[in-house]
Amino acid sequence: MAKVVTEDIHYKDIAYELRDLNNTEQTYKPAEMASALRPMYMNAYSEGITEGYENGKQNEHNRFWSTYCSDGTGGDWRRKFANPSWTDELFDPPFTKIKATLYAGSMFQNSGIRNGLKKLTEIDVSETNVSKSSMSNFANSSLSNYYPIMKFPAGCDLYLSFAHNTNLVEIEKLVIDETTTFTNTFLSCSRLKNITIEGTIGQSIDFKDCPLTAASLVSVIEHLSDNAIGATATFKQSATNAADWSTTNYNSWDQLIATKPNWTITLM
Strand 232-235's sheet: what is its strand order? Predict the structure, then answer.
C-alpha cells in the first residue's frame, strides 16, 4: 500500500470537527479518529432508518384513509364504521370533517369507537339521498360518548339514529330542519346531557331517557317551531328538577315551556 504524507493541519481540522460534533474538549490521536467517527455514523444511520420507517408508516396510514373514504369526502358512507372492531386506536383519520354526498345510513351502528370522534369537528350528511329511512340506525348501539356537529338532510327520519347509545354524553350540535322527524331517536340514551340544536324542530321529539342539562333543555325548547300543530315534546322529569336555571335566561321550567303554548310538553 502506498504511503501518503499528510500535514498535521489536516489532523487538527478533523480533531476540531470531532470535538464540535461530540461537544467535547477531548484531544484525538490520528489512530483514534476512525473509532470516534463510527458512533456518529451509526447514530445517523439509525436515525435515518427510524425516520424512513415513520415516514413510510404515515404514508401507508394516509393512503388507507384516502382509499377507504376519500380523505373525508365522497359518496357512499353506509356502515363505514359500523362494527365493534372499530376502536379509538384504529379510528385515526388525517382529516377532521366527514362530508358524505350520497349515502350515510348506519355509518356508526354498533361501532366500538368511544372517544375517537373527538378527532372530528363535523359530520355532514345533509346532501345525501333522502328517503324516510335514509338515516335510520345511524349510530344505533354505538359506544361513542361524543358526536361533533351533526348535519342531517331535510325530510329524513332520524329513526333510532342514536338509540341505545348508552355511553353518549354530548352531541355538540344537531343541525336539522322543520321537516326532520325523530322516531325513537334518543331511546335509551341514559347519559345524554349536552345537546345544542340548530334549525327548527317541527315534529314530535322525545328525550324521556336523557338527563339533559338546563342549557340543553333551553336549546331544545327554544328551537321548537312556533307553527307546529299537535306536536309533543317529552322530557325526563328528574332532569328538569335538577336543572340549574340560574345558568339560563329563565327562572324555571314552567317559565321556559310557557314560551311554546302550541306544543304539548310532557314529563316522564
Answer: 205-207, 232-235, 264-267
Q: Return the C-alpha torsion angle 114, 120, 125, 126, nearest 10.
A: 130
- The grid coordinates of residue 225 equal 317551531
With residues binned 3-state (H G I as helix, E B as strand, rest as coil), the percentages for the chain, rounded to 5, are 30, 15, 55
d(CA 144, CA 121): 15
Q: Which of 193, 201, 148 is nearest to 168 (CA)?
A: 193
Cα torsion for 48, 50, 56, 60, to the nearest 10°? -170
Task: Tell me the whole-structure pTM to 2 decimals.
Answer: 0.79
Q: What is the pLDDT of residues 24-34, one digit of tens each?
A: 777 767 776 66
| The residue type at 194 | N
**226-238: pLDDT as tens digits:** 999 999 999 999 9
Domain definitions of the chain by residue range: 8-59, 71-267
Report the C-alpha gap between 252 and 258 in whole angstroms: 10
CB hemisphere CA count around 236 (13 angstroms):
21
Q: 33: helix, coil or strand?
A: helix
